[in-house]
């Protein structure tokens, strides 16, 4: 269980309240109006933003003051997930050893992860020699080798077209099912939430609300969400 207990998170003058829990292995979309605090929430869980009051626990362990790298989670950002001067395999290897001193077992894990996301044969390419979808796959391969059980996505597929985005979401869903990972995913598209997230955290009016069933929420949205969805 991921728990945010009576948390207040500050981002400049902005303040977000969160008192919620997410079950292990759940796939949860984080939705809400622009500027409502979705990234603020995810960045606090990842440790990039401090929690002013309250605490965050994962499987009972208090992670509130843990540095980002020590947290049992991995995060995919909107862009810049890959280093342009490194090969695809090296980018993935960074997920295992930041100094890239990889053992034969590590190399095998990198190969296996790249095969799993459909990038076999592209190990030596640089990110710029890949399509947008392939770059997303490489970033997902790095997530796979990290073997963390909490995955935070800040719209990493926003720049992809609808068909490719749907394909990547399906891959994320498969990977979560295979690894048993818990997923929190910021999304601006209700169809993305419907596609892979059983529940949604609505961020609005200064608060991140407890997860609600996706279909029920989107079929009968509260006014703040209705105004945003149009
Ligand atoms: N570095 C910062 N300094 C000051 N205020 C900030 C900073 N970053 C974000 N904010 C403010 O915090 C609020 C929440 O921003 P946040 O990025 O979390 O919203 P969001 O819901 O993710 O938005 P979007 O959907 O547009 O990406 C906004 O009002 C924003 O202006």
Automatic annotation (TrEMBL):
Keyword Cell inner membrane attributed: yes
UniProt-listed InterPro entries: AAA+_ATPase, ABC_SmlMolc_Importer, ABC_transporter-like_ATP-bd, ABC_transporter-like_CS, P-loop_NTPase
Secretion signal, residue range per the UniProt entry: none
Protein keywords: ATP-binding, Cell inner membrane, Cell membrane, Membrane, Nucleotide-binding, Translocase, Transport
Residue span(s) of domain ABC transporter: 2-230
SMART domains (alphabetical): AAA
Key word Translocase present: yes
UniProt-listed Pfam families: ABC_tran
Gene3D superfamilies with a match to the protein in the record: P-loop containing nucleotide triphosphate hydrolases (3.40.50.300)
GO molecular function: ATP binding
PROSITE patterns per record: ABC_TRANSPORTER_1, ABC_TRANSPORTER_2
Protein name per UniProt: ATP-binding cassette domain-containing protein
